[in-house]
Write a structure and sequence with these properties.
Elements lengths: L1 H8 L5 H15 L6 H11 L7 E4 L2 E4 L5 H9 L9 E3 L2 E3 L5 H8 L10 E5 L5 H8 L4 E5 L3 H12 L7 E4 L12 E7 L8 H10 L1 E13 L7 E2 L14 E2 L1 H10 L3 E10 L18 H4 E2 L2 E5 L7 E8 L1
Parallel strand pairs: 2-3, 5-6, 5-8, 6-7, 8-9
Antiparallel strand pairs: 1-2, 3-4, 9-15, 10-11, 12-15, 13-14
């Protein structure tokens, strides 16, 4: 996969950073992780399946591969939990925890066209959105995701595609990206609230963006009635490492302070159990959003904080 990435990357205006990204990715894959043999066996089993063409058949990234469902299911379940998706392989529906199509529908009509662009998807997970970006005609769509399991999930899906689109997931963090102003469109979705230093994250995003590049920022927010921001004392909706929940006004001011321009709030949506749900593809821990909310008041989390609500901002460098 990295050979294909380097070849495609070098054919774009990202060529100055391609070798560096490959070397950093190789180092990340060499980590000592006891799950890697299991994941690699799953990939090897999936490679036995005749690949098919990929398309977007709402809500699925769909591949018309002719697969034995029992064998494919067994291999894909070695790569659980599947958080992002959903995917469809032949007549097998891989129902991920998140309905990514719902988020995509909220933003797709507001972003600049991705055709001919170099796109960066920060915190990409297994690449569901990265595939959609590439299928919009991007020159290349690069997702960065340090969690290795999600990289193997991406490889599993890519293995099933004949002539895959120019979408790649690399096992990297944003701070590892060369600070060259190259990417035309940068997506940071579901990442900001996990950052101890939110301003540093915004600056790092800006540093990798081309002149006049576009940032699509999606993150958890609170209504202004709850104040300018909430800093959870411990967990938020049972999640660790949620550091700050700003109001939309506060987030707008952060973007302005970071030097972004033409800042637009294009959507605010409360997360529902239709969008984030438990499925048999998320493994033994079957808890999802409905388990993270107050059973008597779905406007509150189990910790008594405002229930998850997500905003999408679009702005320029």
């Amino acid at each position: 996969m990295l050979k294909d990435f380097e070849k495609d990357c070098n054919m774009t205006h990202l060529s100055s950073i391609c070798t560096s990204l490959v070397e950093l990715s190789k180092q990340a894959f060499e980590v000592n992780n006891g799950n890697i043999p299991k994941w690699e066996k799953a990939i090897a089993d999936i490679q036995k399946i005749q690949p098919g063409q990929v398309s977007f058949k709402h809500p699925y990234v769909a591949i018309n591969a002719d697969a034995n469902n029992a064998e494919l299911t067994q291999a894909l379940k070695q790569l659980m939990p599947w958080r992002k998706g959903p995917y469809q392989i032949g007549d097998l529906n891989l129902e991920s925890e998140w309905r990514g199509d719902m988020k995509w529908d909220r933003l797709k009509d507001y972003i600049q066209p991705l055709e001919g662009k170099a796109v960066l998807d920060v915190g990409s997970g297994n690449g569901y959105f990265t595939y959609l970006m590439a299928m919009q005609g991007a020159d290349i769509a690069i997702g960065i995701e340090p969690f290795l399991l999600f990289n193997y999930q991406f490889q599993a899906i890519r293995t099933l595609i004949n002539q895959p689109p120019k979408a790649y997931i690399l096992p990297l963090k944003l701070e590892q990206m060369p600070e060259e102003s190259l990417f035309d469109s940068v997506f940071s979705m579901g990442v900001l609230y996990h950052q101890k230093d939110h301003m540093r994250h915004l600056q790092q995003l800006k540093n990798v963006m081309a002149k006049d590049g576009e940032l699509i920022l999606e993150t958890l927010v609170i209504d202004q009635q709850h104040g300018d921001q909430i800093i959870p004392e411990d967990r938020y909706a049972r999640m660790r490492n949620v550091w700050c929940l700003p109001s939309t006004n506060t987030l707008h001011s952060w973007l302005k302070t970071a030097g972004f321009t033409n800042i637009k709030l294009v959507d605010v949506t409360k997360t529902t159990p239709e969008e984030q749900r438990a499925t048999h593809w998320i493994g033994d821990n079957t808890q999802s959003l409905k388990d993270f909310l107050d059973s008597n008041n779905d406007n509150l989390t189990v910790e008594g904080l405002p229930a998850p609500k997500r905003a999408i901002f679009i702005c320029q460098k």
